C-alpha cells in the first residue's frame, strides 16, 4: 500500500535519480547535464542524490551541488565494502565529516548507499546508528523479488520479521526502529536482467536502447496500482558512453515534459513525503518539494 492509502490517481510518481562514488570537477558536468533544463510540475528544477566516497571526491564540488538543491549522502571511504560495525561507522563518519567541513549542513546528510550495492545487514545499520551520525535511510538493497507488479515502497526496519533479503550483501537480524530502506529494482532489457544500467551496457547499441531501458522500467512502476518510487542507480561507467548518457537524458526530458504527476526529486525529499503524504493534486504546494522563486522556470 502507498503512504496515505491513496488511490492510484492520487499518488505522485516519484523518480529518484541517484549517483555513487567519487564526484569531482572531472565528472560533475556529466551528472548535471543529465538533469539540466528539466523541471517538475511545480516548475522547480529536478534534483538528484549523490552518495559519495572519500576517494576521488572534491567535497567543495559536492557542496556546490547541495547549494543547488541536490542531496549529498555517504557511501564509504573507498570502493571496498566494510564488514564490521566499527568499519561501517568509521567510513560513514569520515565521509560525513568531510562533507560538513566543506560546508554541507550535517542535518542534510541523512542517507547511505553501500559500495557495489552490497547491503551490510545488521553491522551496516548499527554503523549508521553510531554516535551522532543521524543517518536515517539506506538505499542499497537490490532484490530480484522487486519485479513488475511487485515493486515495493520504501519500508522501515521497525520489525525484524518480513523484511526482504537483498540479492547481494548481508542479512538484517533484529529490528531497528526509524531506519528506512529505499529498495532498488533490477532492470530488464530484451529478456536480460541487470542489477544496474551498466550491467545492461553490453546490450545497449543505440540511444533509443538506453531510453527504452529506463522508460520500460518507469512504466512498470507507473502502471502498478501503488506507484512506488522508481530508483535510478547511475554509476560513473554508464555515463562514459555517449549514447547511454544521451538516451538517459532523453528519457528524463520526456518524462519531465509528458507526465504531470511525475516528480524527479531527491531521496530525502521522497522520505519527507512518505512521512507526511499529500495527494498528487496538492503536491505542487508541498513545501519540501519546493524551491526558491528565482529557481522556478517562468
Automatic annotation (TrEMBL):
**TM segments?**
none
Tell me, which GO biological process terms does this entry list?
A: carbohydrate metabolic process
Q: Which domain of life is it from?
A: Eukaryota
**Annotated protein name in UniProt:** NodB homology domain-containing protein
Instruction: State the organism's lineage.
Output: Eukaryota, Metazoa, Spiralia, Lophotrochozoa, Mollusca
